[in-house]
UniProtKB/TrEMBL annotation:
Domain Metalloprotease TldD/E N-terminal: 29-91
InterPro entries linked to this entry: Metalloprtase-TldD/E_C (IPR045569), Metalloprtase-TldD/E_cen_dom (IPR045570), Metalloprtase-TldD/E_N (IPR002510), PmbA (IPR047657), TldD/PmbA_N (IPR035068), TldD/PmbA_sf (IPR036059)
GO MF: metallopeptidase activity
Organism: Roseibium limicola
Name the UniProt record assigns to this protein: TldD/PmbA family protein
GO biological process: proteolysis
Record domain Metalloprotease TldD/E C-terminal: where: 232-446
Family: Belongs to the peptidase U62 family.
Residue intervals of the Metalloprotease TldD/E central domain: 119-224
SUPFAM superfamilies the UniProt entry points to: Putative modulator of DNA gyrase, PmbA/TldD
GO cellular component, one term: cytosol
Protein origin, superkingdom: Bacteria
């Protein structure tokens, strides 16, 4: 039986640390404390291979002395005076940063929204083991599966506390459940493997373990006997699981840090058409049971749902306070705690679905490539040049007919975004959510 976490004591300690930093000579400061407990179970051939339980706290004090800043971290929150004195001493000898500072008081959250983040139901190691066994058994029951690649189930409860010297104090708890299965098909050098998984805030939203295992087995069997294909230009459909990476590249390109460093291929594209008119992308920190839902950002600032792209036109960067000041813009509540300070980033980022199903899109394209897996990191954030290893299936007459592997697909993200067509099968489970995506006329390098 797993216990819940009481954040009240951690909140009190964070506020005492703020007072200690002010007493030590800090002009301003904030304290962020993260705490959590997790439980995971791995199963293979019906037997528990490993059970892991972890608990931990991490505390970071950030102080400002004029335009100078420094941070110290600890896994506890007891040596208030020592941490504060050390941080202030470090700040006094660091170079000045004209953009550093706390969020403006007018931007701080004063009334916390009620968000559905915490599943109160307890989870035990025995329950997790049983879920993993069910998923594995379903994978092994698929005809053509030769052995299990293992299955795992997990649960995590995490909490965040933030207190600042200008009057903010807030906290929240969030839960996460996960389940995955891997299946192996074939024998010897002809073996192929694939997996399926689910991850949700609430256990009641999780997919049936038997469905996860069955899909893992079916995917592994479909990958058997892949062929190599010749170099060509081809229409490419990214399965929703693979398509999430494209939205991730977009998120990186509209991150305020990349804009400030001039390392984004979209740095000069604000208020310009970068997608087709049928494309909308939203970022919503209040998405119900979302993977990145939160009541305030890493600075204690309020955030609103942002229409990042409307009718194909770029509308916003992701901005925290420091990056916004550097760019001469207003922050938009997208601060994440990172290292010694904050970095801007997305919350729940979603490419809205199109009107046609994946099957309809493949039928209309006739022949092409369905990409189910990507490998490598061949994306140049400055130019947008794109080259990734891929595996998937040849599409003939609108149907996936033959597994293919050891291919490379290439293009430029600026051109790919303009030709992007979303299907209607939005996979809305994760913080980065997309439907399947068609991109016409990509270069394919084969044998």
């Amino acid at each position: 039986m797993t216990e819940q976490i009481d954040l009240s004591d951690l909140e009190s300690r964070a506020e005492r640390m703020v007072a200690a930093a002010k007493a030590a000579g800090a002009d301003a400061c904030d304290v962020v404390a993260a705490t959590g407990v997790s439980l995971s179970v791995d199963v293979r051939d019906g037997k528990v291979e490993e059970t892991d339980r972890a608990e931990g706290d991490d505390v970071t004090l950030r102080v400002f002395v004029g335009n100078r800043t420094a941070s110290v971290s600890s896994n506890g929150l007891d040596d208030f005076a020592g941490m504060a004195e050390r941080a202030v001493a470090m700040a006094r000898v660091t170079p000045e940063d004209p953009y550093s500072g706390l969020a403006e008081e007018s931007r701080l959250v004063r009334t916390f929204p009620k968000l559905d983040l915490l599943d109160p139901e307890p989870v035990s190691a025995d329950q997790l083991a049983e879920l993993a066994r069910q998923a594995e058994a379903a994978a092994l029951a698929v005809s053509g599966v030769s052995k299990s690649g293992g299955a795992g189930a997990s649960w995590r409860l995490g909490g965040m506390v933030l207190a600042t010297s200008h009057g903010f104090s807030g906290s929240y708890l969030a839960s996460r459940h996960g389940l995955s299965a891997m299946a192996v098909a074939g024998e010897g050098t002809g073996m192929e493997r694939d997996y399926d998984f689910d991850s949700r805030s609430f256990f009641e939203d999780m997919a049936d373990p038997a469905d996860i295992g069955r899909r893992a087995g079916e995917r592994a069997v479909r990958r058997l006997n892949p062929v190599k294909i010749s170099t060509r230009t081809v229409d490419v459909v990214y399965e929703s699981r693979a398509a999430r990476s494209l939205l991730g590249h977009f998120a990186g390109a509209v991150n305020g840090s990349s804009i400030a460093r001039k390392t984004s291929f979209l740095r000069d594209k604000m208020n310009e058409q970068i997608f087709g008119e049928h494309i909308s992308i939203v970022d919503d920190p209040f998405k119900p049971r979302g993977g990145a839902t939160r009541p305030f950002d890493g600075e204690g600032a309020r955030a609103e749902k942002l229409n990042m792209v409307e009718a194909g036109v770029l509308q916003h960067w992701f901005l925290d306070g420091a990056t916004a000041r550097e760019l001469g813009l207003s922050p938009n509540g997208r601060a994440h705690r990172g290292g010694s300070g904050t970095v801007p980033g997305a919350t729940n980022l979603t490419l809205l679905p199109g009107e046609k199903s994946l099957e309809e899109i493949m039928l209309e394209m006739g022949n092409g490539l369905l990409v189910t897996d990507l490998s490598g990191h061949g994306v140049n954030g400055v130019t947008g040049d794109y080259s990734r290893g891929a595996a998937g299936y040849l599409i003939e007459n609108g149907e996936p007919v033959q597994a293919v592997s050891e291919i490379t697909i290439a293009g430029n993200l600026k051109d790919m975004f303009r030709r992007l067509i979303p299907a209607s099968d939005l996979d809305n489970r994760y913080a980065v959510a997309t439907p399947s995506i068609l991109i016409e006329g990509m270069a394919l390098a084969g044998s």
